[in-house]
Amino acid sequence: MTLKKLHTMLQMALEVELFTIPPYLTALYSIEEGRNSVSVKILQSVAMEEMLHAALVSNLMNAVGAHPQVESGGKGQPSRRYYPAQVPHIARRLNIGLLPFSKRAVEDFMLIELPENRTKWKTGPGTYSIGQLYDQIRNLLVAVTEQLGVAKIFTGARSLQLSEVDYYGAGGRLKVVTDLDSALEAIAEISQQGEGRLHSNAAGDEAEFGLPKEVAHFYRFEQILEGRFYDRDDDIRKPTGPRLLVDWKAVLPVAVPGPKATPTSPPGIGATLDAFTATYEELLACLHQAFNGKKAKLVSAVPIMQRLKVQATEIMRIGIGNGQTCPPPFWFIES
Amino acid sequence: MAEERCSGIGAYDVVVVGGGVTGTVLAKVVAELAWRDRKSLSILILEAGTGMVGGDATHNAYLNTYYGALAKTPNAPYPIADNAPSPEDLAFLKPPQDRYFVQRGPLPFGSNNLRLLGGTTHHWMGIALRMLPSDFELSGRHGVGVDWPFTYDDLKPYYEKAEWELGVSADSLDQLEINGVKPKDFGAYQFPMHGLPRSYLDKVLGKGLDKFTFKIDGQNYPARLVPIPQARNAMPNPSAKDPRDYIARTSENERLYQPFGAPDDPFTGAGQRCEGNASCIPICPSRAKYSALKTIEQLKMLSLRSGIRVDIVTKAVASDLELDDAGNIAAINYLAYDEPDLAYATPRRATGRWFVLASSAIENAKLLLASHGAPDGEGLANSSGRVGKNLMDHPFVLSWALMPENQPVGGFRGPGVTCDLPMRHGAFRSNRAAFRTDVGNWGWGLADGAPYQDVERIINPAAFAGMALGSPAKDLVPAEPIFGAALRQLIRSRVRRQITLGFLMEQLPSSANRVTIDDKHRDALGLHKPIIHYDIDDYTRKGMETAFDFATAVYQKLGAKEYTDPAVALGTEVKFGKRTFKYIGAGHIIGTHRMGTQKTNSVVDGDQRSWDHRNLYIIGCGSMPTTGTSNPTLTATALSIKSAEHLFRNLGLAGR
User: Fold this and answer.
1) For B142, which of A23, A104, B14, B429 could close a Cys bridge (C-beta 3.0–4.6 Å)?
2) How far is residue B304 from each of residues A226, B301, B648, measured CA to CA in Å?
3) Of B235, B259, B269, which has the smallest distance from its Cβ to A171's Cβ?
4) Global model pTM greater than 0.80
5) What is the dihedral of CA A199, A202, A203, A207, to 10 degrees?
6) Which CATH architecture has domain A3-252?
């Protein structure tokens, strides 16, 4: 019973990770070529780390005998849903859309990546933040492992685990999960990079490798809003480092809110949107296979991601009236 | 770690001239050894050019310059200081007196380097293959050239370390396909990353050339398509173990390879991999390709962790070396400039205990020749009279052809070259040059300006009417201009069938091919310009003849139609008998301070240590006695590591 609950919660975590990626990518791709280079780097780094997190969750799931679901709409699969929408499996109100790069978008991203705050966690029913979701998973994992023993929990085949051989490139390491220790490390890596701690802005990597100051996602975004980098000794919420220049106007005029129905003009837009949809489907199918034993598919996914970027940018240049352009029709999954 | 100018350059343990791959790898290995053995150490690196350690801002600036450049030549993306000029890519555009190299002929030396922090690894292709065992014994086996002071087996452990230092992607088993390589030459060793995928073109050609052999001087040689080791990030090999015993480790786990990507990038630091951007020369946008900035970044992190002092001073052009009374090097004098293009500099002096010249073969020779400390007026480190001599390259010649209509190969994808057709080893080497083959992934890009030239020919045939084209090339020019869908169809059909075989020709050492200086020829800061005497002998020309015959045989076997035409080819004409070839430089500057077994026949010993001044190492491709047929960077890196270990043993850090 509790093991099943663990499987369900891990699938929820996977869906949350996958939910966050399209809003980040939309903002990222909406920035005019060659402009806002620091913001581009920040968005890119966060999006890449969310992909790493999705892969880590897949490893966690496979380690405990669950089957990650990435495709949607079929029997036993999660359903396909569109933005703007409430972040799945999060109880507090958190409605997120596909926005071009803007202050509002960055504020939304900070809400997604809210730092750990245990007092808030206690006040309401359900899961307050992504950080709390991982905290619940951690506790449940420890509890069921104590209850049933490692051998009954970590039953997944080692061959299903994605490793650095299959994936690298983001600021973090794709850990192989085989036992409780490695599972807790994987969870710690996700929460440190993403939400960080309330009283510290450092992400894990910095402490581990002596790299330049790398702050958790929430604070990384905050730097954009504040127009200033965190310095090495800064307290949270008060960056005093060098100026970070942002040009909020060097952005494609993507419609906010997005069109209610699929746009039909200008002529040809339908085919362009269909092509994007097909590519996104292909990408998710590829990831699904990679997460379920066909690890080589992760490499095949790379050119598809590049094609998706080209197609998304093309769509964001198509005028749909009022001087506004079309957002890319990303979806997310929710079970 | 300071990049700004240090006002008083005190005595360092080690002073390195040159911030490129050989100097920085040497510095890193010495620093790693000091950290492993918990010794304190100070290193100074002087870089003549400008430049910064990585960072997105710098990389993006180089990238944008590249995007905007009309001629995308090797040095196009990079800032070149007037005060530390690099040899021009398109020297013919300048009047001779304004060029950096003074070419005395009879033929022009076609290769250049980049004087910028990180050096020529900014624009190199990233090909990192070893020399063959027979390459070290050319004289002993074939009676031509000279032997190295050691064998392949002696250098093998350093090759392994160099492959891990640069991050080379390859599979050992593939390398055993090279004629002249035996299983024991690689043993159980594994490269840190698996080989890059073969291109579609490689696969089509591999199938077409199955069991193909080629006869040279009466003997048949297998013509096998062999993947080339590349210093660019691919898939790490989880079962490979790090051979670098100079790195301090706390656990066995640390011997697994971590790909290293963008230097100094706080967000995405860990190892961008090759995305097939197809612009390795002049710049890798994803930074999967090795550049010395990565080594500098690792050196910086090591310095932070260990407290080892590493100062890198850019805009510091070494002008000469000073001797002490005992005949050792006492100091390096250099000119420090502020503005790259304002001919004003302050003379400074860097003192130390050990000195390393790592500023490329031509600059090393020039610096030694320009140092007047020696009584004979022949410069320093030159009792053998060989400084500057035996300058070599791999003269590069191109052939090209179109595959049959039904066999497109889909070029313009991936790194420039993923496979070789090696003709590197055999009895013919006593008679003619060996060569290796760049099986080009970028169509006729280098040979014939594709795809731009293809479009030009079709939309503007009149411009080609007066040209002395060979008969096959005439077929490519239509009678009337073609536009629209027909144009697109024709381009598509042609461009995806284009194949190019480029040959890197072995060149023998000759004292007539040399670098000299002359007080009449000076650069902006008043330092000597290199004067270059260069020719290509019949040994190499005979090899070219073989290479083009080989190309023709390959094209016949594949059913491809050959379009090789010296009239339109890039480069300088050379003749052999009735045949004409055109060559360009391969970018491989080799020779000028040869290694050897004795003070009388060489400038440095087998550890690249000067015979004449025992606290001086002169390192890099300049030490190589012969060229073999391998792109030389990997070998130079292996030599750097060998020298670094030797230097560390001599450093005298006891008691620290």
Assistant:
1) B429
2) 30, 5, 20
3) B269
4) yes
5) -120
6) Up-down Bundle (1.20)
Could you tell me where the DSSP H helices lie in B380-502?
Answer: 445-448, 452-459, 462-465, 471-474, 484-495
Q: Would an 8 Å CB–CB cutoff place B285 in contact with chain A?
A: no
CB B564 within 8 A of CB B401: yes
CB atoms A168 and B236 under 8 Å = yes
Of chain A residues 38-77, which have a CB less than 8 A from chain B?
A: 41-42, 44-45, 48
Say if CB B496 and CB B405 are below 8 A apart. no
Q: Which two tokens stand for residue B457?
A: 């020919």
Contacts of B272 in chain A (CB under 8 A): 169
In degrees, to the nearest 5, what angle opens at C-alpha B129 toward C-alphas B47 and B512? 65
A21, two tokens? 């990626």
Residues of B in Cβ contact (< 8 Å) with A209: 301
Give the start-to-end residue ranges of the domains of chain A.
3-252
In chain A, residues 255-314 whose CB comes closer than 8 Å to chain B? 299, 302, 306
Confidence of residue B399 (pLDDT cuts 50, 70, 90): very high
Contact residues, chain B, for A212 at CB < 8 Å: 264, 266
* Closest residue on chain A to B267 (Cα): A45
Round to whole Å and give the CA distance between A146 and A153.
10
Give pLDDT tens digits for A204-234: 444 444 344 567 888 889 999 999 888 777 7
pLDDT, one tens digit per residue, over A138-188 is 999 999 999 999 999 999 999 999 987 787 665 567 889 999 999 999 998
Shortest CA gap A69–chain B (Å): 26
Query: Which of A214, A299, A306 comes nearest B267 by C-beta?
Result: A214
What pLDDT score does B377 carry?
Answer: 61
Nearest alpha carbon to residue B583 among B547, B531, B620, B552:
B547
Nearest to B265 by CA among A48, A233, A29: A48
**Which pair of tokens denotes residue A299?**
């490499």
pLDDT digits (tens, 9 = 90+) for B145-189: 999 999 999 999 999 999 999 999 999 999 999 999 999 999 999
Q: What is the ipTM of this complex?
A: 0.72
Q: What is the DSSP letter of B256?
A: S
B306 at A interface, C-beta within 8 A = no
Measured between beta carbons, which residues in chain B are less than 8 angstroms from residue A45? Answer: 267-268
Between chain A and chain B, how many beta carbons pairs sit less than 8 Å apart? Answer: 59
Check: CB of residue B401 under 8 Å from CB of residue B561. yes
Distances (CA, A) of B491 to B405, B483, B571: 13, 11, 26
Distance CA(A6)–CA(A186), nearest Å, equals 15
CA B447, B451, B453, B456: dihedral to nearest 10 degrees?
A: 170
Three state DSSP letters for chain A: CHHHHHHHHHHHHHHHHHHHHHHHHHHHHHECCCCCHHHHHHHHHHHHHHHHHHHHHHHHHHHCCCCCCCCCCCCCCCEEEECCEECCCCCCCCEECCCCCCHHHHHHHHHHCCCCCHHHHHHCCCCCCHHHHHHHHHHHHHHHHHHHCHHHHCCCCHHHCCCCCCCCCCCCCCCCCCCHHHHHHHHHHHHHHHCCECCECECHHHHHHCCCCCECHHHHHHHHHHCECCCCCCCCCCCCCCECCCCCCCECCECCCCCCCCCCCCCCHHHHHHHHHHHHHHHHHHHHHHHCCCCCHHHHHHHHHHHHHHHHHHHCCCECCCCCECCCCCEEEEC
Q: Taking CA B238 as the corner, what is the angle to CA B233 and CA B244, rounded to the nearest 5 degrees? A: 75
| CATH no., domain B12-228+243-442+497-651 | 3.50.50.60
> Which residues in chain B touch residue A299, judged by CB atoms under 8 angstroms apart?
235
